[in-house]
Amino acid sequence: DQQVKQNSPSLSVQEGRISILNCDYTNSMFDYFLWYKKYPAEGPTFLISISSIKDKNEDGRFTVFLNKSAKHLSLHIVPSQPGDSAVYFCAAIPRRGGSNYKLTFGKGTLLTVNP
Amino acid sequence: DAGVIQSPRHEVTEMGQEVTLRCKPISGHNSLFWYRQTMMRGLELLIYFNNNVPIDDSGMPEDRFSAKMPNASFSTLKIQPSEPRDSAVYFCASAEGINYGYTFGSGTRLTVV
Question: Which of A31, A95, A101 to mutate against chain B (most B CBs within 10 Å)?
């Protein structure tokens, strides 16, 4: 039973355009959400996060949007650059409760930004 | 800071052999996690240590898997005996308390033939 779902295994965009990566979750206990980026042969690296008390968090070219009623979040990258080509993982955690250490990951979306 | 260091980077072993994966967390981080990545299941938490104590090992697939953290700077994940279905990339991650920006190592790619 996947509690965090990334339904698009891959996404291809042109350099300079917007990349939108989507993520859905089912566990209503999740109240903190993160995006990780992973290059081949490296571990995932933390990119950006958002608390459930917010609906938007921005960091440079990266913005994460959260729609709690729909249990949906998205990562926007504007403008996209070839160096953004990587696998992006969505993750969620219940900060309140016994499992407040446990990140649950989606399966990832491979983003390819074409020059 | 060298980050989280895992060894070996790649391991190929025959079915039935013992495999030991190693991890050195970032100094000062008191939380350590072992994750496994497979195509079918994605990234799964195997075990979580806090201050060297195993807190949650519910993700360990079966008794063939064991993990230890004898001190704050070293952890091992052992598989004995190994099976082909154990083939995956195993990641170690560390964090300072419940800091959600976990720092991952580069992983160990395990192939059991």
Answer: A101
